[in-house]
Each structure stands twice: as C-alpha cells, then as structure tokens.
C-alpha cells in the first residue's frame, strides 16, 4: 500500500450495435489474442480486473482513453483512507450536530464532540464509477499509516494524551459505521463490492518504538490476536448486515510481503473469524520485483491461503525490474501461476494493478527496481503487457497460442425446461432479466434489475424444436432478441417484434452451478451466450452476447412465475 499513482475509469466507447445501448464494447473474443485485453481475458475469469484511481485523473482525457478497454474495477489511491476523510487537522462538531448530519453515534459514546468527516471526494469518485458502470474496492478503514495522530488523543487534540482502549473502541465504531453508512445510503453505493477493513496490521511498528502509531500506543502489542482489529471487522460486518449486503460485499484483511507472512496472516484471519465469519479473506498487495519473491514462493502463498478457505483478491500488483525482458518473463510466469491456482479451485475474485503506467508509478523513483507496470505511458503497452495476455492465452482458460479449440468443458449439454412463465435471475448479479423501464416496444433494451414481479421481468419460455426456445416478454408480442442476429461479442440484447427467427432462439446449457443454465444464442451457433457485461451488479446493468465460458455472469436461474 505504498501509494503514489492512480488511474481513472470512464465510459465505454460509443456505438449502437454493441453491449450497452449506445455503448460499444471494447473487446473481441479471447480466441484472438491480437484483440485481447485485460478485461476480456482476466476480467472474465476473476470477475474483477482493476487499477487505482485518484481524484485528479477523473478529468484527464488521456487517462480516460487509456483505461477504457482494460478494467472494470477501481481502487481509490488515497481518497478513502482515514486522513483523507478525517483531515490532517481536527475539525470537531457537537454530537447533536453530528446526529443531524446522519453520523452514527455509538451507544454510551461519552465524548461531547466527534470529528467532522469530509466525503466530497469520496462521493465524486463513487459517482464516477456508478456513471461509468465500474465497480469499486473500498480502501481502507483501519491503518496505522495515513491516520492523523489527533484521532487517538483526548479531545481530538494533538496536545492531549492518548485515550483509553474503551474510548478508542467507540471512536472506531463511530468512524467505520459512519463512513460505511454514508457510502451505502448513497445512490452510488452499489458500486462497492469489497472493502479492506484493516491494512498492514502485521507490519505496524510495535508499541514502545519510535515509529509506533496511535493504534499500538493505545492497544499495545497483540500479535496475531488483536481484539481491536477483530472488533473493526465486526463493526463493518454489522453495517453490511444492516443494509442486507453480506452476500454482495466482502471484507478483507490487506497486507504486503504476504508471501513472507503466510502463517501469521492465516492465524490473524482465523482469529478475526473465531466468533463468526466476518472476514472473507486476504488482499494480497503483491508489490513484487523480478529478483524477489520467486514465482514458486508466491504461488505457494496463494495455495496456502486457498487451502485455508480464504477468498483471495490480488489488490496492488506491480513488478519492479532492472531489465524489461526479465520483467516480461516474470509477469508471464506469475500470471501463469495465478491462473493455475485459480483453475485448481482457489477462490481468486479480483486482480488489481497498482498504477496505469510507469511514468505515474509510485515506484518510478526507486533507485533500482523501476518500471513496474504494463504500460510505459498511457498509450504505450510494454513487452510485459503482451506477456500477461500470452499467459492467459496459453493457460487452461485461453485457447493456446495457435489453436481455436472450443470451450467444451464449460459449454454443457442442452437442457429442456417446461413451457411456461419464468423470472430469470443472473447468478453473478443476483438480479433479474428485465425490459428497461418496463416498456414494451420494438428494440427496447434488456438489462438487470432487482426482483419486483413487474411484467417486464416475466418471460414465457416456449420450446420450438431442435433444443431451442424462445422467450417472450409479458409486456406484449415481443421476444428476447440478439441485435440484427449478429454473431459478435458485445452484440446487444433487446426485445423485438416476435418473429421467432434465429435472432430470437436460444439453447439452455447445463452448468456446474446447481439449477443454473447458460443461455446460448442460435445466431452464434451456440458459441455465445447472454452475458451480464463486466460482472456488473447494479440495477440497470446491461446484458449482451459474449463468447460462452460458463462464468457466473453468464449463468441464469429460471424461477417459475404465475
């Protein structure tokens, strides 16, 4: 989490025939490595492929242009850290005023004031992600660095003494719940899919040392059983429970040099979860260099965390080097290892890089291990970028460097359901296939939405022979339809006048997820399927056609409707 550089995420390219209505998908099939990018390769496998973003880059057109094709997830570089929200200097307000502002004040909070929190930049970044269909990792709530010292002192005053653990517990509850309440009560809060609750605890300077911070000065040295860290996760989890988000937003412990701290991290997370499971797993920062760690050493850490039952998110990846050719090989070997562990069953759910290009990297002034990223500048990919894509192509998830084999391991067998009315729920988003705005007319867009029972969410399935079905909307004589009957990744899904032609015929495919089916299209000869684009989870997320891989965003549950 040594932070310097960020990226900006923006809207996808404009177009009329592709994935989002009025928005063109940037991807071609992963079977063609010349058109592959991070989003249509790693994004399809891990669900989230991301990078960092800071507030200033939102208005940078070069950063926007560079990011369009590569990512679907953002991590705020600094804007969600405690000092960005609390401020470097204390600005306290009476508790009564704080309550009027909607702040969470814990029971038995004994102080007369709380800090006024600044959410302006947080809100801007959340809105940006929401408007551009991007997901976001919350980062971070509890950290010994970038947290002002006054936050730990009596009266929130730099000249006061350090407060007691009991007082600090209440302050921590106030801060965590107020921040999370603010985000999740916002119309933009749905972009959050994960949150780093505690960051780098195992690397905090011990109490009694010159570099000890307020957390250690108040709570002392607690090893792998820090009660205050466990309490922080419980506060955060309780907030998710309040908003009914415990199945949608995951909480993580995030750390660096994680491959050197495997045993301690496992002990720490198991302690955090000793009363109830509140921490999903480990955020592996992965600030690496070509000389250390070895790929084998890193892979062994991945395997250990997977064996411990943890969800794994790679959160801050970069690879410093002295030789670009060595870096290219390291990235290839590293990504091959990560994909191999994923294929073996590890729950790796995000791959996030720490910087858009070398000339913006926090490591650009390192005297030895510089140039750690996949682009040298916003528009120039490096050899390492191509190696990362080749690692995917050569993996079990790709097609190999020169072959075009089918995904027979994921396509499944054609299944038959009874004719009748159904609600159709996407496995990834846990939202329903619906006609936009509940309006029945030719060429009306189809999207995802929270279950409401509206007519626009009801579909009549009819078997029409040769394993194909049609899906007619309850809004009138309109059927689910692939735009122009195209056989392209990104072709939009809509309703259109019911003709029962090839563009309106679909085949249901079995999957390894019980009760879930892929909905492949006749227009693609069953090689493509209905796809929750970019694994989005918000209401209004678009549905398009994409090469079928059997991933959760391409699986659907049919619920009988009256």
TrEMBL record:
GO terms for molecular function: endo-1,4-beta-xylanase activity. The active site is at residue 316. SMART domains: Glyco_10 (SM00633), RICIN (SM00458). Residues 32-391 form the GH10 domain. Coiled coil: none annotated. Belongs to the glycosyl hydrolase 10 (cellulase F) family. This is Beta-xylanase. It comes from Clostridium saccharobutylicum DSM 13864. The gene is xynA.
């Amino acid at each position: 989490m040594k932070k310097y550089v960020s990226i900006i995420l923006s809207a996808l390219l404009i177009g009329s025939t592709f994935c989002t209505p009025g928005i063109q998908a940037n991807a071609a099939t992963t079977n063609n490595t010349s058109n592959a990018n991070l989003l249509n390769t790693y994004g399809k496998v891990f669900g989230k492929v991301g990078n960092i973003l800071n507030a200033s880059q939102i208005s940078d057109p070069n950063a926007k242009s560079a990011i369009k094709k590569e990512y679907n997830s953002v991590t705020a570089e600094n804007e969600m850290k405690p000092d960005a929200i609390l401020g470097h200097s204390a600005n306290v307000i009476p508790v009564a005023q704080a309550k009027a502002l909607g702040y969470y004040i814990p029971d038995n909070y004994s102080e007369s004031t709380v800090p006024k929190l600044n959410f302006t930049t947080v809100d801007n970044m959340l809105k940006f992600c929401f408007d551009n269909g991007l997901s976001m990792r919350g980062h971070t709530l509890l950290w010994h660095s970038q947290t002002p010292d006054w936050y730990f002192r009596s009266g929130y005053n730099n000249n006061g003494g350090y407060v007691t653990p009991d007082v600090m517990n209440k302050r921590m509850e106030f801060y965590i719940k107020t921040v999370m309440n603010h985000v999740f009560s916002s119309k933009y809060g749905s972009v959050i899919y994960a949150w780093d609750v505690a960051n780098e605890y195992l690397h905090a300077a011990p109490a009694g040392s010159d570099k000890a911070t307020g957390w250690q000065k108040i709570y002392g040295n607690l090893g792998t059983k820090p009660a205050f860290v466990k309490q922080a996760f419980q506060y955060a989890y309780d907030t998710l429970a309040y908003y009914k988000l415990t199945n949608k937003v995951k909480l993580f412990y995030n750390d660096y040099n994680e491959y050197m701290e495997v045993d301690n991290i496992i002990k720490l997370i198991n302690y955090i979860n000793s009363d109830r499971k509140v921490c999903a797993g480990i955020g592996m920062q992965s600030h690496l260099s070509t000389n250390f760690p070895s790929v084998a050493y890193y892979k062994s850490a991945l395997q250990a965390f997977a064996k411990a039952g943890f969800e794994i998110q790679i959160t801050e990846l970069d690879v410093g080097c002295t030789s670009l050719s060595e870096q290219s090989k390291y990235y290839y070997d590293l990504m091959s290892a990560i994909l191999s562990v994923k294929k073996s069953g590890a729950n790796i759910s995000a791959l996030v890089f720490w910087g858009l290009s070398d000339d913006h990297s926090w490591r650009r002034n390192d005297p030895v291990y510089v140039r750690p990223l996949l682009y040298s500048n916003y528009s120039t990919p490096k050899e390492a970028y191509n190696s990362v894509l080749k690692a995917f192509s050569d993996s079990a998830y790709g097609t190999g460097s020169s072959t075009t084999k089918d995904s027979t391991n994921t396509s499944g067998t054609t299944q038959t359901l009874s004719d009748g009315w159904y609600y159709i729920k996407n496995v990834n988003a846990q939202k329903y296939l619906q006609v936009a705005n509940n309006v029945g007319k030719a060429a009306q867009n189809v999207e995802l939405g929270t279950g409401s029972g509206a007519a626009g969410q009801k579909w009549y399935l009819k078997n029409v022979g040769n394993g194909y079905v049609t899906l007619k909307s309850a809004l009138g004589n309109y059927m689910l339809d692939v735009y122009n009957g195209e056989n392209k990744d990104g072709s939009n899904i809509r309703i259109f006048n019911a003709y029962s032609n090839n563009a309106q015929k679909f085949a249901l495919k079995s999957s390894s997820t019980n009760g879930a089916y892929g909905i492949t299209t006749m227009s693609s000869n069953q090689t493509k399927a209905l796809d929750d684009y970019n694994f989005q989870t918000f209401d209004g997320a678009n549905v398009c056609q994409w090469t079928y891989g059997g991933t959760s965003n391409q699986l659907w549950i049919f619920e009988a409707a009256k």
